[in-house]
Amino acid sequence: MADIFLRYISLPPTVKVLTVQDEAGDYNIYLNSKLTYEAHTETLQHEIKHIDNNDFSKFVPIREIER
User: Fold this and answer.
1) What is the pTM of this model?
2) How far is CA 20 from CA 33, 37, 44, in A?
3) Torsion sign (Cα): 51, 41, 28, 12
4) pLDDT tens string for the chain (67 positions)?
């Protein structure tokens, strides 16, 4: 399984998280540092579901994945 790296950075208020899979297959999750602990927890759980479902390897619209 790939590694997951969490990073807290300042993002625009409308962006909660950005997840990127790098060349090594590892996932870099960039959480908006301005969010609350509760929002971080909820957002992180959501992103881990995407990783577990291999959503980053699917060639379907994001709206379909988010349903």
Assistant:
1) 0.84
2) 17, 21, 13
3) positive
4) 689 999 999 999 999 999 999 999 999 999 999 999 999 999 999 999 999 998 888 788 877 777 7
d(CA 67, CA 63): 6
Residues 6+ apart with CB under 8 A from 50: 19, 56, 65
* Buried residues in 29-54 as b, exposed as e (16+ CB within 10 A): bbbbeebeeeebeebbeebeebbeee
Domain ranges within the chain, ordered by starting residue: 4-66
Contact 27, 5 (CB under 8 A): yes
Q: Measured between alpha carbons, how far is 19 from 41 in angstroms, rounded to an integer?
A: 15
**Rounded CA separation 35/38 (Å):** 8
